[in-house]
Amino acid sequence: MKITVSINLGGYSFNIDEDAYAELKMYLRNLELHFAEEESSSEILSDIEARMAELFRTRLTSYKQVITIEDVRQIISVLGTPEDISDNNETSARDKFSSPGYHRMYRDTEHRVIGGVCSGMGAYWNIEPWIIRIIFIAVTMMGGLGILVYLILYIVIPEAKTTAQKIEMKGEPVNIHNIKDSVKKEFNDVRKNMNL
Amino acid sequence: MDLENTKAQMRKGILEYCILSVLSANSCYASDIIRELKEAEVIVVEGTLYPLLTRLKNSGLLSYRWEESQQGPPRKYYELTEEGRVYLADLDKSWQQLVESVNQIRTR
Fold this sequence. Notes:
- The structure holds 2 protein chains of 2 kinds.
- Chain A is 59% helix and 7% strand.
- Chain A has helices spanning 18-34, 41-58, 69-79, 82-86, 93-97, 117-125, 129-141, 145-156, 163-169, 176-193, and strands at residues 4-9, 12-17, 66-67.
- The model of chain A is unreliable at 88-100 (pLDDT under 50).
- Chain B is α+β, with helices and mostly antiparallel strands.
- Helices cover 63% and strands 13% of the residues of chain B.
- Chain B has 4 helices and 3 strands; from the N terminus they run αβααββα.
- Classes of the chains: A mainly alpha, B alpha+beta.
- At the A-B interface, helix 2 and helix 3 of A face helix 1, helix 2 and helix 3 of B.
């Protein structure tokens, strides 16, 4: 037995298995990221959704009324992943979307102890944050200067809020592929927490 | 050199021309265009078509109208604009030239 979800795709309503729904949602999200820089990205997406609905309908009969994960995978192979759609190396999304060599310091509040200053510096220089924390503690004990420096840095360094900023913090070029990886990772974490 | 990549580049270069040619006879909705392009083996994945259609529409070469359908929601029918016809006629000429040039080189 499986739980199904009811969705509206291109004006048709479908019953779809929960795992198939997760896969479909991820695919549409990836397409959305892929077309984000296009002038009429929402129009492109709704055209693709309409086509998807048409393809799904050809796979349903009165004996098979629910869309399964195989159906979703089959349709993805027909429509193509963002990598297939961009079709070649020269003008692929990887080049178009990347801002080369961006490497900035951010506060890493995901791994913070106080304000994420030390963990952010650790991510920036690729060293363990506790080394920086020890230096701060040492400087603080030698006359309190550490606290002042920390406060200034806290104000000056922005927090890494978006996925792109979190990637820049680690010095990786920001492109569609590692944004996708990050989103996928977050998605899987959420799924694990929900025990799906 | 990657053969698949070179082939993909070739296909990509003529795709726009093929779409406009499909639409030169009569207006079609996206799935008709896809069927023709697939039969002629100029596209591999369907998703390639939609951004191109939208771009051609935005640049004034195509327009579309909504048409009721018995099977479901209304469909988008694309057709060439006057500008699109001029553009296509130009592409026809350069395609002809290209074929001649390549043949000339190949038969030398």
